[in-house]
Design goal:
Strand content: 15-25%
Structural class: alpha/beta
Number of helices: 12
Shape: globular
Order of helices and strands: HEEEHEEHEHHHEHEHEEHHHHEE
């Protein structure tokens, strides 16, 4: 695989490769005969990702993090907000197609995201066929071999079918497919959550090696804070459609500000058994509200031990709590 030029890697380094402003995504859920209710999966999310950076996006299942990743690539059309990629606002058919030529996605489930009727070669080369990049049949096959080398799989796998591979091998094939168009940006949608712990480490190391080699930029989505800690430059924490805290990885782990982040971090296992026994687990009380019937004010207030009357009346915005560190909570001094 040809390495991306230094000029293209540096392009946009002074500004965000990806900028998202007040992104919203709503789904209409059936509520009976000719009736529907609105589910706000993403509610006013804003962030920026610089070229060559890895930004982690974490939160419990159902918080909207996967929806964010899919809306960025217009796999789901956004309900509102702006997406600016490589200096161009994304919205028209041409701009969406141009973005997909420079951005791709690695899906969570390596078992359902790959077509069992296609050979490995056809799966990996599918983006090349879609964008007319395959060239000759010989060039297509050569490109597939390059991509198999990149994800450390033997060339002879190209003629085999997906049912013949383990979960880790399938995810490597999915990564090779994502790399096929030589993208600048990849959405990694919980790419290791379906894998064994030992395989998770191998795949994360591969993502880091590929980033160093090809100058890739990642949005790394996960529900496990211990996974994103080692790969992310910055981390955003989501709860019920909103980003409640964002900071550098080191700052977030050493000085979490939001009560939800503190609870998530308290559940991350510690290797040292003495430290593990000595620490106090912060257990959230109450039930997670339905995203179809969110509480007024702060979405987190129904599970927060520090909630006040103001929390039920107004939704807090992200405010600075340190250098490059923001949190959305009324009770942070």
């Amino acid at each position: 695989m040809a390495e991306r030029s230094i000029e293209s890697m540096a392009e946009g380094a002074g500004g965000g490769l990806l900028r998202v402003e007040e992104l919203k995504k709503e789904f209409h859920i059936s509520a009976g005969f000719l009736k529907s209710r609105v589910l706000r999966a993403v509610d006013g999310v804003s962030f920026r990702i610089d070229a060559g950076e890895t930004v982690g996006l974490v939160g419990e299942s159902g918080c909207g993090k996967t929806t964010v990743g899919r809306v960025l690539l217009h796999l789901y059309p956004p309900t509102g907000g702006r997406i600016v990629f490589d200096g161009k606002e994304i919205g028209t058919k041409d701009s969406i197609r141009d973005m997909r030529r420079k951005a791709s996605i690695v899906f969570q489930d390596p078992y359902s995201s790959l077509n069992p009727r296609m050979t490995v070669e056809d799966i990996i080369a599918e983006p090349l066929d879609v964008f007319g990049l395959a060239g000759t049949k010989q060039g297509r096959a050569a490109r597939v071999r390059e991509l198999l080398d990149a994800v450390e799989l033997p060339h002879e796998h190209a003629g085999r079918y997906i049912h013949e591979f383990s979960g880790g091998q399938r995810q490597r094939i999915g990564i090779a497919r994502a790399l096929a168009v030589n993208p600048r940006f990849i959405v990694c949608d919980e790419p290791v959550s379906a894998l064994d712990v030992s395989i998770q480490a191998q795949i994360i190391n591969m993502f880091e090696d590929l980033q160093a080699e090809f100058g890739l930029t990642y949005l790394f989505i996960a529900h496990d804070l211990s996974v994103v800690k080692h790969i992310s430059n910055r981390i955003m924490v989501m709860y019920l459609g909103k980003v409640v805290e964002t900071a550098s990885a080191g700052e977030l782990y050493s000085s979490p500000a939001h009560p939800y982040t503190k609870s998530l971090l308290s559940a991350v296992p510690i290797v040292d058994p003495r430290l593990e026994r000595a620490r106090t687990r912060i257990v959230l009380e109450g039930d997670v509200p339905s995203p179809i019937d969110l509480p007024g004010g702060c979405n987190f207030r129904t599970r927060c031990r520090y909630a006040t009357q103001r929390c039920g009346e107004e939704s807090p915005a992200l405010v600075p709590v340190g250098e490059g560190h923001e949190a959305a909570c009324w009770n942070i001094s």
